[in-house]
Fold these 3 entries.
Entry 1:
Amino acid sequence: MALASISRSVAKKVLAVETPEGAGALVRRSIGSMTLRNLTPFLMLDHFHVSQGAGFPDHPHRGQATVTYMLEGTSRHEDSAGHKEQGGVQWMCAGKGIIHAEMPVHANGAPDPRGLQLWIDLPKEHKMVDPSYQELGPEQIPTAYPDGVDGNVRIKIISGKSHGVESPVRPLGGCWYFHVIFDKKDTTIFQNIPSGWTAFIYIWKGSVIVGNDTIATDAFHTITLSSEPESTGVSVKAGDDNTEFILVAGEPLDQTVFQYGPFVMTTREEIQNTLIDYDVMANRTAPRRGPLPLNAPSPVRPTINVEEWEARAPLSDVEIRSVGIIKAASERPPLPVKFSTDEKTPSRPSTPKNKLLLPSSRPGTPNSSRLALSTHALHPKQPVQTPQQFYDWFALIDRSVAHSQEAHFRAHVASVSEHLDTCDKLIEHVDEIDKEVDGMLEGWRGVEEGGKSLKDACERLLEERDRLLALTDDIGARLEYFQELEHATRMLNHPGESLVLQADFLYMVERVDICIDYLKAHRNFREAEVYLLRFQQCMTRAMTLIKMYFVGSLRALSADISKRLSEKDVSSTAQMHLLYTRFRSVSPQLAPLLGELERRAYAHKDELSSLLSECHSAYFSARKSLLVARLMEEIKGLDPTRTELVELASGVTHTSYQPSCLFFLQTRSGCSYLKQLCLDEFNLFREFFNSGEDQLYQYLENLCDYLYDDLRPRILHEPRLTALCEVCTVLQALMVLDVPDLSEDEEDDDDELNLDLDRPRKKHGLSRLHISQLLQMVLQDAQTRLFFKAQSVIQSDIRYYVLKPEDLTYPDKLLDARKLVSISDIKEKESISQIFKTPSLDKQDTWFPTLQKTVWVLSQLHDFVKPAIFEDIAQEALSLCRQSLVSASEALKLKNPPTSRLDGQLFLIRHLLIMKEITNNLDLVQRDYDPSINFAGVTDTLSSLLNKTTALLPDALFSTLGMPRGDGSIRGAKHGIDHELRRACKEAISECADSLCAPLHEWVDRVDEFNTAWRTKDTAGAPLTTQEWASQVAAEELNDKFRAACERDLRANVFRLKLYLEDDRTVKVLIRPVQDQVVEEYDSFRDVAWNMYAGALRRNLLSSADLRGMLEGICDGDRDGPSTNA
């Protein structure tokens, strides 16, 4: 809505009640009813509903316009023989008069006709115009769509213009007629209305809110709008969905309205004339759609003679007699009384009748004029000769009769005029009384305003009083903080030894602390900085008193305990009592004071942290002076060369231990004692303090330095790898016990123990002691020495290992291990990691010594060095071990050829597969996998490789031999093992196949060479079959030898494979390529022999399927197989 859009307000609301009207129709009338009259220029508004058989039959109109708007159904306007369809409009200007009928049209299934009819008064100058009609069908009514309402409002413009759209209807006088349709609730529009025009709204569906009205007006109400000069239109808001109403505005008429039924004129005389005209019109037969004939000549009718009439309408005898009777009766019709000839009195009583007689020109001759009767005023001045003259004369008589009949009405009008005069006088008296009442009301308002002024003044005084009281209370509350300084200063000016123990002391300290915080928050107060400085001085003095009392008490206690400990024969129980129980006895008295000091030192670090540090230093100095001498004695008692170590190490004499075990006992005992000592000191410190964690651990590290100075030289010079591992085991066991539970560190979601000592220690407060920080340096020295010692063992026992004859007794070692079931398995040390406890470890006596040493060294190092360091040393050890195995394999091949060649290859495959299993486990651990997870092993990997390839053991696929799915971290060692394993497998497969197929291959090559040479000669030589080596008998002998070799050599080779690899699935994976190669070589031989010979040889040759079946039968034969010397 624009800024200039000012809406009219509601002037009146009238409910239209449904009442019968016409011939059975139902009408809701608002304008024109008793409650709403004279809404110029609007005379009447009817909302009609016409049921079956009802309607509005013939009725006249004059001096007005009727607007009929059909909402539902159709209606017939009979004088025009037209229909008004649903949504159609007929604007009829009655003008000087018309008679018409409006009857509904009820079609089958169609709704009853419903519509609106509005009577509009015509201006005085247009009341006697010729009747006219303006009709619009539903599709001809223009529709406007206001902006800003998203198409939720449609305005059908019956007349006038709205939102840029104008109707073609042109009424006489200004009148706008709109049909507004709202689709959604709470939609608002603004319609401009010319200033000064009369406007109203009629609702027949939903509800609306007009202007500033807060209450929605329901259906069937007519709302008249005010006409303020400043208003430019009306704002209408839909109160419901699907709301419909009409908005009508018209220019008011400054004229008198005389209405008699359907006749609307401006004077009473015009009404009377209209009634006379209607009576005349009612007795005439004229077209419906024409004006009433008011003083107009009748139309000329065609005349016929008597003969034509007699011919067209012959009469019977009875009819002729009746006509004669009527003729006789009409020859002397009686005149009305008014026109009687024997009336004696003249029209005017002062004029005698004989005065009108003039003397004749000739005597005795009668004069017709003398005999003429005096005429009446209503007597026709001229003889009646035409029907129109008769109608005019009769209308004059009818008006005279009506005038005489309305005498009582005129008398009633005179009486009403007298009553109106009386009412005017009463209104004048009422106006005078209103003025008096207004004067009294003004006086009362003056008194009321004076009382309100007095009341407001009193309330302001009360508010001012309350404000001053609140200000006084606020000032008093703030002064309490400043007044506290005097009390604190007075108490601190009279110190004594027992001042800090008084109950008021801690209360005073608390109050001073509160005052300091308050003044810091309100530095804008006057002299706040001065008082803040003095309060801080008081706090410093109070905390200094606590420090002095604590230091003095601690010195006195330490002196007494030192004196008691210097006495002879003090038992260990007495020492524990003096060192710990005596200190705990004074903690209940000192701990609250120290707690106050800690709390203030944390809040005021700049001023009080130094006092707390002095308390910590004094405490640690006192404890250190009492413990150092006793600690040195305990460390000296841990020397394994002394007999006291035997007693300390669980009552076992040192002669029953090796040196490494004595060193292990010393480390375990010393660390256990040191851990208990640190734990006792930690718990005692917590009895006094709740802070100072860094100073506490520094103090405990100083105590540990005494044991560390004794152990470090021994660790650095320890030559035994097992002893170093045991030391690391002891230290890690003590540190594992120190790992916090998950509940103490919610951020650590890893269930695995993490002993990475390089990670900075988190602040745990004084909740528990973390012994790992204290043992960290000892463990690092032991791990460093262990790493260098392991490197030395790898270099001496693996890289530079000297081969011995008994190391190459293969396959005898395997046969002995297979025949003899070991009574007791090899038991590894308990410290060996779980990742090396694989099924292959059960037969380490059949391993090559370097592999045994590699597994032993890695198992010792895995749990005691960092993962990165372990990975480096493991890669080095595995690479050197692989090189030693390759050298041993080459030596074994040369031991007893040709059988030793296959032994050397299988020896290398066996040990490489064991190394493969070890590297896989190491790689899983590096990637945080469980070694027990069932990954695809060597057998499955070999099977998948050989089943998916056409080439035998391709290089690209052997890189994943025995590998778990994913990239490992020990890539260098694994790549070398893969490479050697690929080469060894190729050589083993070739060795097994060549021992069977070498003769066949040589024979086929010899045939090819002969054929090639024979084709290149110019002259034909001896044919191939004539050669002795190429005869059919030689070929049959070669075929029989091949079968025998398969039965003998292949069975022996399969037995060797099973002996070395000890797993049928793995053996089958390697046997399959052997079979494929044999079948391929034999197919070449069979093809050549088939083309060269015929007869029995062809029957002896094996097909591919038969040969493969024979080979599988041999490979799947008895497990024991032949002896290795076969």
Note: The mean pLDDT is 76.
Entry 2:
Amino acid sequence: MTKLRINFSLKFIALAFLSFSFFGFSQEAKYEVGEVSLTKETLYDSDSRTFIFFEGAKYNIENSSIPFKEVQIELSSNQEIEQVELSNYSISVVEDEVVSTTILNSEDLDDDFKIEVSYFYFKKRKFAEIKVTPFRVANSGQVEVLKRFDLSYRKKAVAERRNKTATVFKNSSVLSAGEWYKIAVNKESVFKLTYSFFVRNGIDIESIDPRTIKIYGNKAGMLPELNQNNDVDDLEELSILVVGENDGDFSRQDYVLFYGQDPNSKYYDTIADRFIHTQNIYSDSTYYFITFGGALGKRIGNQESLSGTPTNTVSVFDDFQYFEKDRTNFIKSGQEWVGDLFDATTTYQYNFSFPNIDLSSNARLSISAFARSSVPSNLNIQVANSANTLQFFTVNFDRYDTPFAEESKSVYVFQPNSPNLTVTATYSKPQSSSKAWMNFIELNVRRRLVFSGQTMFFRDVNSVVANGLTRFNLSGQLQSAKVWNVSDYRNVLNQEFSLSANTATFVASSNSLQEYVVFNDGDSTVGFSGKVMNQNLHALSNIDYIIVAHPLFKEHAETLAEFRRNDGLTVEVVLPEQIYNEFGAGSQSPVAIRSLMRMLYEKANSAADLPKYLLLYGDGSYDNKNRISGNTNFIVTYQSKNSTSPVASYVSDDYMAVLDPSEGAYTGADNDKVDLGVGRFPVKNLNESLGVLNKILLYGTQQSLGDWRNLSVFVADDEDGTLHMNHSAIVSRNIDSVPFMNVEKIYLDAFPQIATPGGDRYPQATIAINSAINKGSLLINYTGHGGETGWTAERVIGVSDINAWQNNKKLPLFITATCEFSRFDDPLRNSGGEMVLLNKDGGGVALMTTTRLVYATPNLYLNDTLYKRMFEKANGEYKYQRLGDIFAITKAQHSNSANAKNFTLLGDPATKLAIPKYNVVTTAINGSPVNGKDTLKALSKVTFAGEVRDENGNLMTNFNGFVYPTIFDKIRSFTTLNNDNNGPYNYKSRNSRLFKGKASVVNGIFSFDFIVPKDISYNVGSGKVSYYADDNQIDASGGSTDFLIGGTADSVVLDDQGPNIEMFLNDKNFVYGGITHENPTLILELSDEQGINTVGNGVGHDLVAYIDDKTDESFILNDFYEAALDDYTSGKVNYPMNGLAEGKHRLTVKAWDIHNNSSERTLEFEVLKEKDVKLDHVLNYPNPFTTNTQFWFEHNQAGQTLDVKVDVYTVSGKLVRSISQVIQATGYQSRSIEWDGRDDFGDRIGRGVYVYRLKVSSRNGSVAEKYEKLVIL
């Protein structure tokens, strides 16, 4: 047996890993690559990319477009993979077409099949990830593919590493007790808190023992992203100086001094040999916390000047300044913001001042800038007598998948000629469209150690040596100066020195770089953030679900939390500020939110105790620092480091759920895995919040029960050849093994394409999608092109469609594998995905969706995995019931590429997908046990019998309710229309519904009958029955294909009469010619002795409706028909219509019975918009009358509160009676006002003719009135 063997000397990469049954496999397993093909995808216009595709291919498109096969294996915590072996493999040559048009033609391809092993953790369980790249360049120069192989591996024992790097979190926060106040600084300095500061901010300082004043904080700058490097765990007490505290009273002349840090950090880069700054992308302030009382506070101690022979003497030090102003984000994505724009203005000057600069030492200028130009361009830099040039690569303006701008950065060494340095930058601007932006400027200089009276920080890199001892000679105005060593921000020390002839001298250790500050007085520019209420997030443990809620939405979040507690979860609602205080030193940061989850994760002693869900209750923005007017930064977002590439930049809420020690850096080469389900409500106000909350609550109650839970809808675009339809078909195969699920396929190319002045359109596909959503479905899956406001280039779904959906009791989970449909972090636009969730009357319960540009081919495997996990069972139950579980496990099986990170969950991660728990089975057909041989023939009467059973197969004798059976004809083959000349696509679908009924279930048992329609497909083949049942509390579902359909019954009842049709709008009180709004509901009541035809097989035999005789725009009502209870001869339709034009219309309905006899019915109506009150059909009934009449009228204010007044006059104009009433208009017709024919004094008025005025006023001030006559007999 031929083998390929690869031995590994593995460097441990701690990458979180999952342990689930689907990962485990024996130490030898078989894999196939199969057919290798090409998929060409277009992003926008001509921007395209070609992918190599094979079944099960995975991609990491940031690094390479070459796909790979991936295997995940659970290990013990002390195991690694020692050896991987491939055997029984077959190799073939890749076709020239594939090689010549893809990356396989590059020189980067190895000369052997590449096998890589890495490790990760998922929910604290260790896994190995074996990646096989099945392409190589053979000795012949040809590219070969590994078509199939057996993979085996051998494990070895290693030291356990995870727990050694895990953080041990505190069990209580210092903020849990005492009185606390939060303050802010925006630069590095020594700060002064005076008596007036405390009094001005409402702190009763005179009642405080100053010896107990304490200040807490943490290291400034952004929190470390790598978990094992982030040691911020609650606030730490800092050493401070309280002048005048010894007497126990804080007098007016007393004050506090403390060292405060810049929110932007700086550090010395030993490789670059210079200081570098890091801009804080989350906060412009560093926060500190003041408290008092109890134990004595931590005070600044003295550091003596050391004795001994110095190894170095310092009178010149390193100084550092930078300039960075964040004004513009190129693509509304990513961490990078840039400053001055070189366009109309091509030259800017930047001034820096370094008093007592050492003119004999070199200085270094570091500069970064961006340019967008289709030809080479330059930024000319001049400082002192030095001139330099930044050169920029060109940008392809014609491709959307290339970087928006190119960065250029460099470091220049120059000789300073003055303490005041001006950096002049001039852009060459070779074309009118060429632009450049300044990013940052850094200056490293040497200054003489002279103190001029202004606070001055100093340090000296040259003095740092092992066992170093350095003498510092500081000259200047030092009579009242202090020198502090601030190298350790927690333990600031007062450096003692000797002063002689205006020179201060001290000797200190210089084993490491030491930072000092010399000052006379403190800086009083301290901001006051307010009082901090006691909190103690550190005391939390064993929490299933954390809801991080912006204060505006806290009440709604508490309602959701209580709802989930009743659902069996332990839930805690926390405010962002609380998290930032304990885990981020008071500054906002997604790392702080992750640290809270990490604390709960590390405290968990079992899998059951692990945190499972995180909800971010509030919208987010790509602008985390509120530079944009109307910003929506309610809950902080994590933006990618890449800020120029539309396909490599992303926003990720998953960032807050990668919890193991070696995770969190998000470098692009990481293999971090999310350890819990994260969702977000992108709400911006209370109305949006309440709308989403109500939808979530409704989805989880019996009000949303219905057979819509048995349907999955797959929508596919017509672009890129047949790519999207093929991908949709691959994903939908997962439903084939789920008996109760029915699939509706809406492929655009299967519908006529209409050319319009605005471009090609698919009006019938739009109707089909809107109908599918309004009638309800468990899942809506879209594969194809899209944008922020809709789907497909033909705009098959847009904003107006989304806002018109009315399906709030039948909410699907949307899965949208399309570009940036749910870009929730753009404050200036509500994306289509956001609107799907925010639509209070319908839309979706949640979306697993995309926030940036994505590629379809990498999407496919993620989408496919999502469905596999969604319907995976264990011990008779669905393994991953809640959306967060499904999403997390799906993400865990994928590389952490930008493409995968662009998928996010908008919605509640604790929502259970509405899959019925119990089972419905067929026990008999026409009185005989089900054996797979029963044949249902056209026009024959059929009786089904069945039962509702629990998960163990037992009859549920306490189940009393209704079952909704649907009988389908055989699977049929279809071919699309080839509208774009990309070739037709062949697919199969079971979409012919023979019968949909409603039957009583008594003690778990039911039966129903119907007559098989004439319009079946007459060849004999397997039919399908799909069941949904509920008893108004719980539900069940089932399905079977164990019977046949075909042929004609031996005896047939003759029938030549069409169905009876009754039609209304909105409610059964509607009259011919009545008024309605632009989104009415069509109500039909149908009956026929043989049954109604809703098959859809026979051409022209659909149940249809159309408006104003436009038969080419008819809408098919087959799927909306439901038979009456235990009666197949009658039924009803409720069909929501959307966006009708204002004015008069004529609605026609055509229905067929199962013998193909038809009937038509028409209804005229008028659409009036709801803004101003309009009246029609004002009358009183009966008229004439003797003792009692009702006033009837139609209006256009359904759902509104109306003030109605009826004034009755004699024909001469005398008022005899006024009737006033407030009504809540539930529909468009009112009959609630009655009159007994008496005047205002209770006396009966005389017989004769009277005039009345009916006046209606809405709460927005609109008024309408009409006059009519009545007769009293």
Note: The domain at 918-1048 is CATH 2.60.40.10 (Immunoglobulin-like).
Entry 3:
Amino acid sequence: MKKLLFLFTLLWGQSLFAQQAPLLWVQQPALSPDGQWIAFEFKGNLYKVSSAGGNALPLTINGDYNGYPVWSHDGKTLAFASDRFGNFDVFIMPASGGEARRLTFNSAKDIPYDFSPDNSQVYYGTEANDIYTSVRFPSPSLFTKLFRVSINGGRNIMINSAGTEYVHFNKEGTKFLFQDRKGYENPYRKHHQSAVTRDIWLFDLQTKAYRKLSDYAGEDREPVWGKGNEFYYLSERNGDQNLYKSNIVNPSAVTQLTFYEKNPVRNLSRSETGTIAFTQGGELYILQEGQTPKKINIELSADFNGNEVKNLTVTGGAGQMAISPSGKEIAYVIHGEIYVSSTSGAGTKRITNTPYQEGMLQFSPDGRNLLYSVEHEQSWDIYKASIVKKNEPYFFSATIISQTPVIESAKDEFEGRYSPDGKKIAYLEERNILKVRNLDNGSTVTVLPEGNLFSFVDGDQDFYWSPDSKHLLIASSLGLESSDDVVLLSADGSKPVQLTHSGFNISNPQWTMGGQMIYFKSGKLGLKSSPTGPKQTDIYGVFLNKAKFDRFRLSKNDLKLFDEMKQIDSSVNVSKKISKNDSLSHEKQQIALDFDHLDDRTLKLTLSSAQIGDFKMSPDGEKLYYLARYDNRVDLWMTSPRTHDNKKLTQLDAGSGSLEISPDGKTLYLETDGLLSQIDVETGARTVISINSTMELHSEAERAYIFEHIIKEIPKKFFDPKLQGVDWTYYSNFYRKFLPYINNNYDFQVLISELLGELNSSHTGGGYYPSVDNADQTAALGLLFDEKYEGPGLKVMGVLPGGPFDLAGSGMKKGSVIDEINGIQLTAATDPAKLLNHQQGIQTLINFHDPKTKATFEEIIRPIYKNEESALLYKRWTNLMEHLTDSLSGGKIGYVHIAGMDEANYRITLDQVEGRDATKKALIVDTRFNGGGNLHEQLIDLFTEKVTLYGRPQGHILTPTSPEDGSAKPTCLLVSEGNYSDAFNFAYVYKRLKIGKVIGMPVAGTGTGVFWEPQIDETLDIGLPMISLSWAGETSIMENHQLEPDIKIQNDYEQLLNGHDQQLEAAIKQMLTEIK
């Protein structure tokens, strides 16, 4: 532990003196027009430095993130993006420093790109709705729109809707270069060659023509203009990403200007005098063409430690709870730290205080030790916290608590579980080997070897000791590619015994009734959905003792009669048939195990199937408590298996939760949505357990821990144990050195995405999801606008069905012009987004008029959230696609779009295929821009289903909805570069089985199983692709193998944005030929 703590201390200490050393991890450099200055982002603020290097001058000094600087052409003004209001907005400030003015107010990500030639306008990219004439899949975040705004603020005008990134205009302002974005992928992924990689384009504002300038199959990005028709860009065309030069007249003539290896060139900028700036290997360079790049040394005198250590009050956010044997205290984890609170509210004690992650808690049988797992140094290890003073009975009030290792090695060991007698600990080694450690002599036994458990989330394996400390229960498939069953393990390492043999997955098996019954969750009788959808389950019980089983089946009256007879006449030997043992605490009693006819001694304990979460039985087996979702929220339910009584014990209205029960069975303990509470099992009364403590958060040390966690985790969890040939040690060391130069999660997210991007795999990279109190949130009106309209007000080009204005009697229609919002007139100086911030769900007065009739209207509506408007836009788009298909095919062909590979989309698809399109002769299945999930097998079954028998009710011959021979209806599949994950898998299987033609653009091979792992800082996550896929009987995996369509059609920007979907039209043409 000391070794890693030293590393964290070193990294934190470096920030005290790093400002005097040359800076690393400088981001987003921008050269001034005369090439004399470079503006850049470092540690969340903007600076400028001479292009010769030296001391940097601060331009912004605040706790927000300020970045993406852009110079005006006269060098007097800087535009930049800042998250001061919870999202990135465009600001401008004097290039010499001074007060910044906000230009954009929409709660989308606005990033400045360029100034107009006269410096009166700022061009920026933003996440906005498509132009109203577009028939492209609606995705504001995927296809960035180009806007302009006056340096004085006011109305924002759309320039282009194609989906443009890194836009740079020529000197005359008549053309611009941009890089495209075709689909979902980590932008820092390296070396992949597929259709989804970025390309360089030219757009002519006068002719409205688009021209693709790059032809390499991999990444081409970040274009900037040179002299005249020349342009520069970054490309991986010769291996690692370097700087290249070309021209728009003959873009195939390419000259390589830098020749770096291993680490890419990034952040390209060029001055009007020809100086080029870029970053490489985390350092800043300038280049005069024909010369060697020159490294720029930057020095900076500033204190960056102000926000690195925060004292926080802790009142919620608890998870991973554990109950002490006495039931008087509860341990839990908040933000990777362990706390213990009194269940009566008497106090809270913080047990750990580190920047790394602790969890997986359990009290020792005597309650004086708390077992936990901690990831530090080179691995996960198992520690215990102990109350030192013998006269102090509880952790929450203890004055001295010691922490000592219990199981510690270079391997990962976690999820330690004390045996009931306290003499042994069961634990996982390297996530999938279950072992037992004897605490008296230190000997270790493997009870379930490698190949029988597969962990995808640390701490996701449940195993339970028998009351006599001789056995363990776990759910496992025992190495088969099948569902999990209940497996009984012997603590001495004897051969495992499979207790169930079910074709339905079983989970979380546990003991009750002194070890005479095992209960578990199974989906055997519940409604089954797609692999990613909700599933209904039941709780079952298996009796290991025939006499206990017979007694359990007695009715309440029969049991009462039996007990009375037993008391009156002890000579009545009913026990020959039904044995009774009232002692339910059998720690010292050996459990009698009878494995014969277990299927005959299995009972369903729940009365009806439900979406069941956690569950616990009373020690006597008379009551079953479980968390269930019968509607949209989780509540606590109680069932009596003997009497079949079932009731909602406590209404929780929770999103999720976990459940524990006290040893005496009188109290339940709940964790729901980060809150702790206890429930009286008789009344259902709920008492919240108070959490009141503090946390000292060391952000820099925590980021260092997260980095080390990723470094250790990838080699153990990545789908390819060889990491696709990547030198992981080199890159781990390379990126580690930049940690002291980062003080915010935006830059840290880039760092970990760069690191994970070295793996050249889909489903990698880091995500950052900041949460800001009272952040701007722009409401939506459910209208389509002419975003290029420059007259007064907002010109309406469409009313979205289901939106706020879709009301009987509303005067809003296409062509209407909105004049006022809440009484404020919309002039050229007014940004409507500013008036709609925080207006969702609030009555809002809209004044508008009809330019044709001059009629005026005044209507009060309630604006909606942007995501609600996005759903309306998607529905509008699918309706349009259905209409086009129907009209162009003469009603012969049906259409369905599958937006995601999940339960909801399967139901939508089935409803349309078997409903509205049942009588169509053929079907177009559109999966373009489907982001994945897990549904390909169900969809393949749906589109290959054959009919063998036709029913004839009362002699009538019904008109079949499938071909007369019973074969599947003809289909074709529309795909795009935006198909991802399981949307690739579906297309791959569809084509390989020759179900129909695949039409559209090639699809990158992204078929891996991923878990997006939240980090100790829950605003961060990383992608961990852990499962690769291969065709049955083959060994090669599908990842990185592109799918080529049978009919390749690329949608032209101009056609697509003006109402013509060439891919859909090609699919209709193809299907019409197939059904002739």
Note: DSSP finds 13 helices and 70 strands in the chain.
